[in-house]
Amino acid sequence: MIKILKFTVLSFSILFLSSCEKDEFVGPPIESIYGSLDILEPLSNNKPVGVDFSIGDTVLFFAEFSVLSDYQIDIVGRSSGASFLINGSNSNLNDAYWLGNSDNVFFKQYEWCDITLSFNNHNTVLNDSILILGERDLSNLGLLLTSFEDPSEYSIVTSSNNDEFGVYSNSNFALHGNNYLSTLGIGSAAWFGAARFSFNSNTITETDPNNIFFNGFFNSDYLGSAFVIKVFEDENGNGSYDSGIDEAYALKVNLNTDSQWHKHSLTFNDLIIDQSGNNILVDGILKPQNIIRIDITNSQSGSANGQFGYFADYFLITYNEPL
Fold this sequence. Notes:
The chain is mostly beta strands.
């Protein structure tokens, strides 16, 4: 009986001790999440003598810190004002890189950019800089209508109310490259000239208008200025737009008039049937594969008499998402 009792007590003791053992910890140690932030490796990048995005260079960022943290890298061009934001969560910057893209206007060639690394819930801020030796070529992101560097890509159509509609060269002012479009109309007309782009049907390969974006950059200081994007279909397949037979679609976009560059992106689904002049309604269904011409016109938001115009640069059609 005593042996049975001893065995029972021993069994309960082993069971009790087993239940009191500490569970194995899963995940990072608590101090790596809630501890103080110490910088173990300062902020730097792999392009100390400059980055040439025109040949596909990539900037890699380096830094290491003592705790897992949500971080933010801000890149700002000193002359262009272009910016790009990178967010991440880690104890280093192993996943942080930059391909030369921007969130608003473009970064410029031979421009210094300031790089700032900051952390959520911490006051620590690290700084670095980088020189851009070559601008990124964005034409492979979609269908480049023009950057106004090659006159063969576009033609100019003027009107009687046109005071100016031409391309000028100034790398300090142009958004991308050296050239930009300058337009000015005077009066109360509905439009003041256009930049025209002609191509074959099926050049636009995406068939859903919701997934096609026109992207353009505009700069204006004339109140009431606007641009109109107008697309023309070749419904009967004869290689030309025939007014009264084929359909046209258009959309007017009012411009900011603060003398700053602004990106405008819109989907082809925003375009509406244009029945002005001799244009007609056939079926009211925009078929991108039939588009053979795109006009970007200088226009006005209302009908008042005055001066209306803008500078423009870099017209690009992208698929699935805006530039």
